[in-house]
Amino acid sequence: MAQVPMSVDELKHMAAAIRCDIIEMICTAKAGHPGGSLSATDIVTALYFRLMRVDPQNPRWPDRDRFILSKGHACPVWYAALAERGFYDKSHLGTLRRLGSILQGHPDMNKVPGIDMTTGSLGHGLSVGIGMALAGRLQKKDYHVWVIIGDGESQEGSIWEAAMAGAKWKLDNLTAILDRNNLQNDFYVDDLMPIEPVADKWRAFGWHVVAIDGHDMAAVVTALEAAKARKGVPTMIIARTIKGKGVSYMENVCEWHGKAPCREEADKALCEIRGDQEVQL
Amino acid sequence: MNNKTLLPYRHVRAEIVAMLSAENLFSVAEAEPTRASYARTLLDIGERNPAVVVLDADVSKSIGTNKFAEKFPERSFNFGIAEQNMFAAAAGMATTGLIPFATTYAVFASLRALDMVRNSIHYPRLNVKIAASHSGITPGPDGVTHQGQEDLSIMRSIANSTVIAPADADTTALAVQAAIAYDGPVYLSFTRDPVPKIFTPDYPFEIGKAVTVRDGSDATIFAIRDLTAHALVAAESLAGRGVDVRVIDCHTLKPLDVKSVLQAAEETGAIVTAENNTFFGGLGSAVAEVLVENHPVPMRRIGVRDTFAESGPYLDLLDKYGLSARHIVTAVEEVLDRKKRVG
């Protein structure tokens, strides 16, 4: 099993492995959401292999850090990360969306070891994270709560209810990360229902805001570590990402929000991800 | 409190029994809104159970949970007018072992925040208690937007749900305690308006076990929440005409006490249900489903017909929308008539 915490180079390797898992899973399942899984991969990898205090042998350890993938449709990245981290055998990944599988189309906390919250209906996860963060403070636990939300998801009103509450209660044990890939199911976020100026909005709501390249692993790690250390205010990390990142024909193409690659496409994707990895190193 | 009761009544306070035939029962009997009993019970439980936390959405002064906030400020969280955020946050708290009581009006709990209530509380089966006041059409003066006339039906349709609507203040306290002892989501439905304190302290409250509060053999009335008192009045009125009606306080809508329904069908052969709730999908529907599949007998449902109500005083609204004792009496007469013809 992989040694944690990982160096930035090791994280890049792991992110490539997780991207390959995602492509394989969705290709095998013949359904799923590759675009948003690939855009969030570097962040999820940094969390599980560098930042988060978790115990794969004891997934409901009360003192663990919590992670919520509020954009639950991107769960292939969560499933792959948990498998690579040792929460369960990687053989489960081939069962995604099958009848009887622990890996539902959207994540079910009661079926999958390591899933801290059931998600799928958008606009819930940040509120759930607020509840966990308030509970941690009340119970005097030092765990940190991480929530990834989508930019399309940010059109849900409940996100902004949660934004107010996070600032009101000064939840510095909570960090939100916006996967700003600018694509949603139907079209570009900026055109369909613009959320900009999104950084200004979060600042105005009382959050500490940083913007990073969500695929620059060193920048991701630095931003996550700074967010965890910051006191007195919750942090929103706006991660500029590319939907479908790592697979040329998926990158920034709306149709790959919720479409599975066929075998041939998947093989091409795997080649590209592995090739990129070799070039980078 | 006086533990005495008079046969054929069970667990009904003697002074209430004595008043059942009086026209002014609802103005003279000792009464309290069940929301107030809920809030008072939390104060008591808060002392003993440090896991209990209370979440509000800007109606804490109305429901009375502001007293919990004063006594246990660190365990009280007012989310403002943001019910969706409150219910999802309650789910997050429950994942850590806390027992959140997320408190608001029935319309907001069962409609405004229903997506959170379904997907983030019931689907993962998290230990959140949903405390909903102003159930039924009788937050009278406020009018339709604040009348939770569908909450029982909506909540009953959700998988993993437990739905409880106690009839008076003292059984509300028992319901809240039972909800804490139960590990999983519970929907608790309370009245805005004062309702008579009808039951004695020996009332045996158990989730899913309906309680016979009047013995009878001619017909059975299954009643829930505030209509149990009206069912008792109806039964007393019918007794004056020689009709002996069983009354069952069906405080748990789900899981329904199927055994009690079938026993009533077999032993009395005619059934009326009474609920201050839409008659689509609530107690009447639940009882009818059991009877149709197992033991059909003549049946009538008292509930809000396919309509919205309006502003008005509590008793006047019940009467205008067909939920009063006199309507229950008529319904019993109808099922008895059909029972005779069938029999």
Describe it:
The complex is a heterodimer of chains A (281) and B (343). By secondary structure, chain A is α/β, with parallel strands linked by helices. A 5-stranded parallel sheet of chain A has the order 1-2-3-5-4, sandwiched between helices. The model of chain A has no long low-confidence stretch (mean pLDDT 97). Chain A has helices at residues 8-29, 34-39, 41-51, 75-84, 125-138, 157-168, 189-192, 198-204, 217-229, 263-280; strands spanning 66-69, 145-150, 174-180, 208-213, 235-240. The longest helix of chain A is centred in the first third of the chain and has 22 residues, at 8-29. In chain A, helix 9 links the parallel strand 4 and strand 5 (235-240). In chain A, helix 1 (8-29) packs across helix 4 (75-84), helix 3 (41-51) runs parallel beside helix 4 (75-84) and helix 3 crosses helix 9. Chain A has a single domain (8-280), classed as 3-Layer(aba) Sandwich (Rossmann fold). Chain B has 15 helices and 14 strands. In chain B, the strands form 3 sheets. Chain B has a 7-stranded mixed sheet, with helices on both faces. In chain B, helix 3 crosses helix 10, helix 11 (227-239) packs across helix 15 and helix 12 packs across helix 13 (283-294). The longest helix of chain B has 18 residues, at 325-342. Chain B is globular. The A-B interface holds A 62, 66, 108-110, 116-118, 120-121, 123-125, 127-136, 138-139, 157-158, 161-162, 164-165, 169 and B 53, 74-75, 77, 79-80, 82, 84-98, 100, 115-116, 119-120, 123-125.
